[in-house]
DNA sequence: ATTTTAAATGCAACTGTATTGCTTTTATAT
DNA sequence: ATATAAAAGCAATACAGTTGCATTTAAAAT
């Protein structure tokens, strides 16, 4: 079995992106997390390994190539999670529900929960659906009484 | 028939808020719009009639009293729209779908379109649902051919 | 009508997220 | 080994939103 770094390197090359240290490190971090990740978080854990601006640009490049997808938290901060298979630069297939925990503020991708189709008023043309549920996540259920 | 300003004044008093010029003016503006409104927009149209901070505080007070509800646009900026009847400080009943136009960037409240109930994984407890559809609105349909 | 007072406004400074322009470095192709 | 286009680094800036504090004012009390 090939190791993780090799997989990430192939992923970059496949998308026409150079194999650089900041990019590999971001992929490493994102893949090790169970919830969506923001630039400020990456900046904090990576310290001087990467410039603030580099992180923003890495995230933007990954999103454009369909490697990660963006979801805003309740403060309006962008958070990113690795896309499930089937996403590409041309088309994102990430129309699953996101869950925003009021307690720990993590954002989970509920990949199994799809967003139902919607009937909108005449004239409106829906391109994408974005459903964010807020509440208490499974990990916090105990702590919150 | 009582005039609009009288209605707004009663609305403020009913919610224990003083009848001030900035508040009345914000209600006036919000009621005259067909889409959700941001602080920066209010600041722009009101000019020196109200301080930036005052507008933020007015919007916050209105939201707490259930007079308006908040919806984030795709950039994460807060936008506000007047609540339909039935909202109060204790409970918001604004779980309708919001529509974010990719062309004019307006945010519409589709009051008629309710968010369907959702089945989430065990352990997660859903408190609120927030569904934003993006695409092209009825007004822009022609322009975008 | 005048005074009192709690609430609201205005102003200045600040925080945090994100972006832009430009220079330097580096991965990859030649 | 060299050339070059892409990426990273750095500085400055934009923009939404917040906080602390002094001043003003709506509404209540006298």
From TrEMBL, chains A, B:
InterPro entries: FUR, Fur_C, WH-like_DNA-bd_sf, WH_DNA-bd_sf. Pfam families: FUR (PF01475). Keywords: DNA-binding, Repressor, Transcription, Transcription regulation, Zinc. SUPFAM superfamilies: Winged helix' DNA-binding domain. Belongs to the Fur family. This is Transcriptional repressor.
């Amino acid at each position: 079995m090939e190791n993780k770094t090799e997989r990430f390197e192939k992923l970059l090359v496949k998308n026409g992106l150079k194999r650089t240290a900041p990019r590999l490190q971001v992929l490493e971090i994102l893949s090790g997390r169970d919830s969506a990740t923001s630039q400020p978080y990456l900046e904090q854990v990576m310290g001087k390994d990467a410039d603030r601006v580099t992180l923003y640009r890495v995230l933007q490049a990954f999103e454009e190539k369909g490697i990660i997808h963006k979801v805003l938290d309740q403060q309006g901060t962008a958070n990113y999670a690795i896309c499930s298979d089937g996403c590409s630069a041309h088309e994102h297939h990430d129309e699953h529900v996101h869950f925003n925990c009021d307690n720990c503020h993590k954002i989970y991708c509920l990949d199994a929960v799809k967003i139902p189709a919607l009937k909108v008023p005449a004239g409106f043309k829906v391109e994408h659906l974005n459903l964010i549920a807020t509440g208490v996540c499974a990990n916090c259920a105990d702590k919150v009484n």
